[in-house]
Design a protein that fits this description.
With 208 residues, the protein is of the alpha/beta class. It contains five helices and 13 strands. The chain has a single domain, classed as Metallo-dependent phosphatases (Purple Acid Phosphatase, chain A, domain 2, 4-Layer Sandwich).
Length: 208
C-alpha cells in the first residue's frame, strides 16, 4: 500500500493539477496537522483516495471560506483517539502537541497519556481478532526524544514512546517539527516501528 503523508507546509504542486503528474499509485492520504482543511481536501479529491487526518496546534476549530465553513477536511476521517480499519490496514491517531500557551489542540504530557489510553481497549481487541495491535499511528507531535526539539513548543510526547514500545505499530507518521537543513534526521527505527517526520510531504510504500 502506498501512502502520501502531509503536514505543516503547503507544497504548491500538491495544490494544483500538477499533482496528477507527480504523484502516482497512492492508496490513501494521511494528514498530520497544521495544514488548511481545504488543502488536504483538494489533495484527496484529486487523487481520489481516502483521507485520514489529525489536527495540529496551529489548526483552527473552524476554517471559514466563501463556499462553506469547515470543521475539518470534507470527506476526511478524523483519527483523534480513534482506530479505523481500511483495506486490512489498522490506523489510529492522536492530535495536537505538548501544552505551551493553552491554545487549541495542546495537551499536557498527562493528558496525552489519557488520549493514548483511550485507544487501548480497541488495540487489545485488534490483537485478539487480527493478531496485531496496530499498523499505522499518526500524530502531529513527535515522540519524546525522537525528531523533537528542546524548546517548550516542540518537545515530543512521552505517551507516544509508550505506545510504540507496547503496541509496536509498523509506522508512526508525525509532523510539527519543521525541516530546514538537509542533514536533519526524519526517519528513525525504534524497535519494530519506523518513525517518519512527514514535514511538507512524504511518499511511503508500506510493508505490513
Amino acid at each position: 500500500m502506498n501512502i502520501l503523508s502531509v503536514s505543516d507546509k503547503i507544497i504548491p504542486f500538491l495544490y494544483s493539477p500538477e499533482i496528477l503528474e507527480k504523484i502516482h499509485d497512492v492508496d490513501l492520504v494521511l494528514g498530520c496537522g497544521d495544514l488548511p482543511y481545504y488543502y488536504q481536501e483538494y489533495i484527496a479529491m484529486k487523487l481520489q483516495v481516502p483521507l485520514f487526518f489529525v489536527r495540529g496546534n496551529h489548526d483552527s476549530p473552524i476554517e471559514y471560506s466563501a463556499d462553506k465553513d469547515r470543521k475539518g477536511p470534507r470527506g476526511g476521517t478524523d483519527l483523534h483517539c480513534r482506530i479505523v480499519h481500511y483495506d486490512d490496514l489498522i490506523i489510529a491517531g492522536v492530535e495536537g502537541c505538548v501544552w505551551y500557551n493553552g491554545e487549541n489542540y495542546q495537551y499536557t504530557q498527562s493528558e496525552m497519556f489519557l488520549n493514548v489510553l483511550k485507544l487501548v481497549p480497541s488495540l487489545l481487541v485488534n490483537r485478539l481478532l487480527h493478531g496485531r495491535y496496530l499498523d499505522v499511528f499518526i500524530s502531529h507531535a513527535a515522540p519524546w526524544g525522537i525528531h523533537d526539539k528542546s524548546d517548550r513548543t516542540h518537545r515530543g510526547i512521552k505517551a507516544f514512546n509508550w505506545l510504540i514500545r507496547v503496541f509496536k505499530p509498523k509506522y508512526h507518521f508525525h509532523g510539527h517539527n519543521h525541516v530546514y537543513e538537509i542533514d536533519t534526521i526524519t526517519k528513525t527505527k525504534v524497535g519494530n516501528t519506523l518513525v517518519l517526520n512527514t514535514y511538507g510531504y512524504r511518499e511511503t510504500k508500506l510493508v505490513i
